[in-house]
């Protein structure tokens, strides 16, 4: 439980369509307070919590988990930083399909400069499966150098195949980095286990496998947040998870990882008092996995087992556990075990929704799981869970120690665990369902007393330690020199003894607190805490500037006193803008901001600077920059033109500039290419025939404002859609009705006998009616139709059918035949001749062109009266036109 928490991002190599990730927040404080959740400088959410009213925040996945292998070995802006005004628990619960895990934040106790890494063993198995080792870090200060070492030199890292003995990266505050090795393609069995991460400034580290593989029959997530080397210990107790340790065959999943932090570390298990240790770890970073066969039975019938570990030097201890006894090979979890200390808290108040962790499995969706509480307490503890002993197994003393064990099965909801007689306790959970497993410990990592600063300059600050001790003695020094510490306050009031917190106000300097716990003598004293002056918060407004411009360079100067020297090495951008780029010139300490063509009308960034000395003045300036944007209503338009010789004429200037008026625009430039190298001259923009081009091309536009910044636009050049003549219906050879679709209405119509297809009728000849009179009798006509776009008309020919009543085929060139070839322009035409007895003597067709010369099969017919039948359709959906009548044939005979 702490006022600040960090979660480094996680690299997932198990692709899944069903993902869940949330942070759970809870506190013992009865007065509500806010917790702000940041990723970098971005505030993601603010949650208000109090005792009995915990909160959860569903984390957008892009801030905490990445599936993209390109994000490994790369500086990221992922990860979370949580800031509260009082102490609270924070843990992250997350899942992919079939797999889940929990990462418990260690708060300020998790920050440090040296870590050894813990993961499950490398198990490639007999069939292909994904498996990795990963360690992710998040920086708390600018210019933090992080170095990974102690791994096999031949190990291949994702996105970094160089065979180096170290990997180094420099991070700024809020930035993160994921180290990863893929264990499926390498033969090195150690992976990253026992590798060391060091930094020159405090960082938070999470390590494990996402996903990992212990058994050949399954994979799962094994992940937890680590603690720095100076928070490790030399005595531990591990309680088993839900794996069945009563089985004849040993549990593969249940085992314990021990990692040495110094050379020649002796490891003794389960009260081994002989001179021969169970294991000796020769070097720092060496490790051993202790199998479940070496666990001792606590209550075998209830499947409660334990492992007592005592080492000659400090070590890391990680528990690997099964979340489900039914599928233990596929339901793994991992948690860091806190070292035993009588300075552990006596009350863990409160853990929220301990049985929740949403996950989709092959067996269905699970929001809750079977949870076992593992409680480790000092001997003689009076342990209660939610004010009750109901269902609590224990106490079970651990031989050779001052500790005893308890278990509670099927824990649900919010839980508070306490030893009512003030003795030390810690608690972990082991949970899962089907093939899901996870675990975590919630207390014990800050058992070494430490001072935290709570509150802020605006609401008041205080320094505090955990309120779990019996006596508190505060001291103060202005310079941290030997012998300089004096009681604080300078004249303590015996009738008003010191408590777990003080309010120093403006008395800046170094503070320590000596704490005494009667059940854990002697007293302990914290390391010194440097209490700094409050940072002055000021504002600055700049602009407007163009979106391609930079602000005038800012030289940091203290607002309250410009004569105070500035330490330029301490100047940095404390909050980046949402658009553009702010940066510090390291040589001068000056602040720069480049808009970099952002489309935001306003951005905000912050910069921090301070003076010299151990307790410097400092100031953080919030800068608001107004950015002049070019506002285009229609940056991309399409314009159409009629075609002349397949070319269109386009008035670019009018069509683009009239709808895109903006007072800030100074000029438009038009180009034929997207690289803006072929500018269209003004002569083609200002007067007819304007710019000519084939349709289907694009013109590119640069629009400048008064700041000489520009935006780009596009003009698609098109041609008007032409009308389509669908039907021409001649009625009684006296009128014609024309139907038209497409193009742009209204239409204009005109017909001309023997009209040329390229003829352009004067506008005055057109009619707005689509039914026109036929005044020139039979023959071939051309119809002309114009759309409202006023392009050249579309045309189509049609025929008006008429027939002569006399044929005299005597070769004189007059009435020698009856020519009905105009029927060829009709649909389903017929031209038939019959004699007076009804016998058909002629049938017109394409071969004879519907022309009759008074013959039957080439032989002249006798003079007489004959009958004709004419039939056709003007279009497929009109009724047939039929004409009948007589013809007088006068032949020479």
Structure explained in plain terms:
The chain contains two helices and 70 strands. The protein starts with a strand and ends with a strand. With 893 residues, it is mainly β.
Average pLDDT figure: 91
Sheet with most strands: 8 strands, antiparallel
SS summary, helix count: 2
* Low-pLDDT windows of residues: none
The coarse silhouette is elongated
Number of domains: 7
Rg over CA atoms:
45 Å
Tally of extended strands?
70
State the separation between the terminal residues, measured CA to CA.
129 Å
Helix percent reads under 10%
Structural class: mainly beta
User: Per DSSP, what share of the residues sits in E-state strands of 2 or more residues?
Assistant: over 45%
Quick summary:
By secondary structure, the protein is mainly β. The protein has two helices and 70 strands.
Features:
893 residues, mainly beta, Immunoglobulin-like, eight-stranded antiparallel β-sheet, seven-stranded antiparallel β-sheet, 1% helix, elongated
Itemize the secondary structure elements and their pairings.
Layout: E1 2-7, E2 10-11, E3 20-26, E4 33-39, E5 42-49, E6 55-58, E7 65-66, E8 80-96, E9 99-104, E10 112-116, E11 132-139, E12 144-149, E13 167-171, E14 176-182, E15 196-212, E16 220-225, E17 233-239, E18 255-260, E19 265-269, E20 279-281, E21 287-291, E22 296-299, E23 304-322, E24 332-336, E25 347-351, E26 356-361, E27 364-368, E28 370-378, E29 383-385, E30 392-397, E31 403-409, E32 415-419, E33 425-433, E34 436-441, E35 452-456, E36 460-464, E37 471-477, E38 486-487, E39 501-502, E40 509-516, E41 524-525, E42 529-531, E43 536-546, E44 572-575, E45 581-584, E46 591-594, E47 602-610, E48 618-628, E49 636-641, E50 643-644, E51 647-650, H1 652-657, E52 665-671, H2 683-686, E53 691-693, E54 698-705, E55 710-719, E56 724-731, E57 735-741, E58 748-753, E59 771-773, E60 779-786, E61 794-800, E62 806-807, E63 818-819, E64 827-834, E65 840-843, E66 851-852, E67 855-856, E68 859-860, E69 864-873, E70 881-889
Parallel strand pairs: 2-7, 43-48, 49-55, 62-70
Antiparallel strand pairs: 1-8, 3-6, 3-8, 4-5, 4-8, 8-9, 10-15, 11-14, 11-15, 12-13, 12-15, 15-16, 17-23, 18-21, 18-23, 19-20, 19-23, 22-23, 23-24, 25-32, 26-27, 28-31, 28-33, 29-32, 30-31, 33-34, 35-36, 36-39, 37-38, 37-40, 40-41, 40-42, 44-47, 45-46, 47-48, 50-51, 51-53, 52-54, 54-55, 56-57, ...
